[in-house]
Write a structure and sequence with these properties.
It contains twelve helices and 13 strands. It has about 425 residues and is an alpha/beta fold. A hairpin with a 5-residue loop joins strand 1 and strand 2.
Length: about 425
C-alpha cells in the first residue's frame, strides 16, 4: 500500500472561504445560521454544495431521503467507496461550523485529490445527510437513520414539524427527493470530521480529538396533567399544579445524572406549559429529558430511576403522568482499525491529539452499524455549539481537514 507523503496539505484559505460562503445562506439573527432541514435555505445550501462537487468532476446524486452523495472514481471498479461527510442543516440558532465543517472539509479533501490527480484503489465519496439536527422534524439523525435501516422511510416521511408539514411533502417541495432507494450504497469505511461541541480539546491544548466512543442517548418526553385554576383564588393545598410537578421532576433529572458523574449527563432543554398565562395555574406540562452516557447500563438505570421518582412526585400531588420515548440510541464504539488510522494520521502530521468520547449524537453513530466508522474532532471556542456564537479558528479547521485527508487516503489506498 502506498502511503501519502507527510507534505500533503489542504488549502486552508479556500476551505475557510467556502465555510463563509455557505454561512451566507440561511443567516441567523446574531451572526450564525438558521438553515433548518428542508427549508428553502436548506435547498439553496444543497444546490451550492452540488455545484462545487460537479465543478470537481464528481458524480453527484441524492436518494429518496434527500441524502446527497458526491463520488470520485477509484481504480478498482469493484471496490466499495471510502465515504466522508456530515450535514448542512442547522439549528434555528445554529453556528457556522456544526456539521458544515465535515461536509466542506470533505469537499476540500476531494479537491486536493483531484488537483494532484491522486489515484486510489477505492472510490472516495462525500455524504451530506438529511435532517441531522432533528430540530424541525424529530428525531435527529433521520436521513442517516433510514440509510442504516434504523428507521422505516414511510415512517420518516410522516414526521411532522410544528405546522403539521410532513418530511416527505417538504422534501418533495424543495426538489431534493431522489429516485435512488435509500441504503443501497456500499461503504468500505466512513469518516466524519466535526467540531467537538465541548470544551475538552481547547482546555487540553489539543488540535485533534480521535473519537473512540459516542455516548448513548435516551430522550423521554414527559406529559404531566393537572388542573387549570386561578392563581389568586385557589388555595395552595387545593392546587394541581403541573408546572410545579415539572420543576420537581427536572430537579430529579439533575440529581440522577450527578449521581453517575462523570460518566453521565442529563438535562431538560424543551419544555412548555398550558395555558401559559400569568394568572392561571398550569394544567399541562410537556418537557423532554435528555440522558446520555457511554455506558448502556447507566442509561437504563437513569431512565428507570427517573420514571420511579416522577411517578412518586406526581402521585403525591394528585396529578397524572405519561412517558413517551422521543429518541434513543445505544452507546457507540467506533471501529478500532479506523480509529488507529485517524490517530496515526494526526501523529504523522505533528498535531497534538487525544482520544475523546463524543458527547453529541452524529450521523457516524448510525453509519457505524453498517460499515467501519470513526470520527475526527477539532476544538471550538469555549466548547460552545448549537449557538450563533459558535466559533473555531482557521487553523483548527485546517488541522481537522488535513487529518481527514491523510486518513481517507490511507484507507482508500493510493495507487499512483
Amino acid at each position: 500500500m502506498t502511503t501519502p507523503t507527510g507534505n500533503l496539505r489542504i488549502e486552508s484559505t479556500r476551505l475557510w472561504d467556502r465555510l463563509m460562503r455557505m454561512a451566507k445562506i440561511g443567516p441567523g439573527i446574531a451572526g450564525g445560521n438558521n438553515r433548518q432541514a428542508l427549508t428553502d435555505a436548506d435547498a439553496e445550501g444543497r444546490a451550492l454544495f452540488q455545484r462545487w462537487c460537479q465543478d470537481l468532476g464528481c458524480t453527484v446524486a441524492h436518494d429518496s431521503m434527500g441524502n446527497m452523495f458526491a463520488v470520485r472514481a477509484g481504480t478498482d471498479p469493484n471496490a466499495a467507496p471510502v465515504y466522508m461527510g456530515s450535514h448542512l442543516d442547522t439549528q434555528p440558532t445554529g453556528g457556522k461550523y456544526d456539521g458544515v465543517l465535515g461536509v466542506l472539509g470533505a469537499l476540500e479533501v476531494m479537491q486536493i485529490i483531484a488537483e494532484l490527480d491522486v489515484k486510489t484503489k477505492h472510490p472516495i465519496a462525500i455524504a451530506n445527510w438529511s435532517n441531522e439536527e432533528g430540530t424541525r422534524f424529530a428525531p435527529a439523525l433521520l436521513g442517516s437513520g433510514v440509510f442504516a435501516g434504523v428507521y422505516d422511510q414511510s415512517w420518516a416521511y410522516g414526521r411532522k414539524d410544528s405546522t403539521d408539514k410532513t418530511f416527505g411533502d417538504e422534501l418533495a417541495r424543495i426538489g431534493w427527493q431522489g429516485d435512488e432507494p435509500v441504503g443501497i450504497r456500499k461503504m468500505h469505511a466512513y469518516y466524519e470530521l466535526h467540531i467537538e461541541q465541548g470544551p475538552i480539546l481547547e482546555a487540553q491544548g489539543k488540535d485533534i480529538g480521535v473519537v473512540i466512543h459516542g455516548q448513548g442517548l435516551i430522550w423521554l418526553q414527559i406529559t404531566i396533567q393537572g388542573k387549570a385554576s386561578h392563581t389568586g383564588s385557589t388555595p395552595m393545598a387545593m392546587r394541581k399544579n403541573a408546572g410545579l410537578a415539572m420543576a420537581r421532576v427536572i430537579e430529579k433529572v439533575d440529581q440522577i445524572a450527578l449521581s453517575h458523574a462523570p460518566n453521565a449527563v442529563g438535562a431538560v432543554g424543551h419544555l412548555e406549559v398550558t395555558p401559559n398565562s400569568r394568572n392561571v395555574i398550569p394544567e399541562t406540562a410537556i418537557f423532554t429529558v435528555d440522558f446520555r452516557s457511554p455506558d448502556a447500563s447507566i442509561l437504563q438505570d437513569m431512565e428507570a430511576k427517573l420514571r420511579q421518582e416522577a411517578q412518586q412526585i406526581t402521585g403525591e400531588m394528585g396529578l397524572t403522568i405519561s412517558f413517551e420515548n422521543a429518541g434513543q440510541y445505544a452507546p457507540v464504539s467506533f471501529d478500532p482499525a479506523c480509529v488507529t488510522t485517524v490517530r496515526q494520521a494526526a501523529k504523522k502530521l505533528g498535531y497534538a491529539h487525544m482520544d475523546l468520547i463524543s458527547g453529541a449524537g452524529h450521523d457516524a453513530c448510525w453509519i457505524n452499524q453498517i460499515c467501519p466508522t470513526a470520527m475526527i474532532m477539532c476544538p471550538c471556542v469555549d466548547g460552545l455549539s448549537h449557538n450563533e456564537a459558535e466559533k473555531i479558528t482557521p487553523a483548527w479547521a485546517a488541522a481537522g481537514t488535513n487529518t481527514l485527508l491523510h486518513t481517507v487516503l490511507e484507507t482508500a489506498q493510493i495507487t499512483s
